[in-house]
Amino acid sequence: MISPPEFTLAKLYDLQGLVALVTGGGTGIGLMIAQGLAANGARVYITGRRVDVLQRVVEEWDMKKEPHMGTIIAVKMDVTSKEDIQQIVDKLSNCEGKLHILVNNAGQVGPRSPELNKPSPTAPKNAEQLGKYLFAQESFEEWSNLFTINTSSIYFVTVALLGLLEKGSQDRPGFTSNVINITSISGLIKLAQKHFCYNSAKAATSHLTKLLATEFALKQIPVRVNAIAPGTFESEMTNVVIVGPEATDASGEPIISTPAKRPGKHAEMAGTAVYLASPAAGYMNGQEIVIDGGYIAVNPARV
Asked: Residues with Cβ < 8 Å from 265, sequence gap 6 or more?
């Protein structure tokens, strides 16, 4: 019989002293997760291309955090640059010697086709009009650039940090270092939501999550890889303050309204990431947690 203290929140979700890296950690979902990890004791490096945004987060965190909480550290990094990624590897090697949690969150929305499904006089009305509109609206370069940041970067950041993640697993008995990829319900549903490219890239990231988890497991590398697929949350990507069911639907563009009739809350996103990062999720590997207020429960999806 396991002793009762093993079932306490302090034991199950113990992140004290762990080292985390959150890409795109200065705003939106990345910031929610970074704060959640730090609030529970982790030392969290946040990266992005805008140093001023990252530094503002650090200053605000330092003013508000409580003594038992961890720190947030700002580091400039472009996840599409091998040079920048290597600099992060070198910095963590020198400053920490290990990494316990990697959150691949950085991403963009990419090219859009705003007239798709839009009930307006200018919207395409038949196959020929639709084909011409979609062909002219987006470019190969836009698709390539978005896949680079939303999918390819996750591969390169993860494999570059794999050695440090393995050392993180060896650092604490019973704990497994882990990677959390931020995908999206857009990669799981069968609706384009006016951005075929974004949805395709997120679907690729979902599969990449499983590929990495499987290959690491087969090679007995002690690093778990899972994903979170968010529905509608307020972020720079949604570009609005989302209040009520109409605004929630305007962001997610469902056929049937999201049952929760609201966007996700910061604590709900942070709590999901804390679970995946913690010892409580030590038996979870190669999985994708959907947190969407019931969106894909009532809309066509591939899961």
From this structure: none
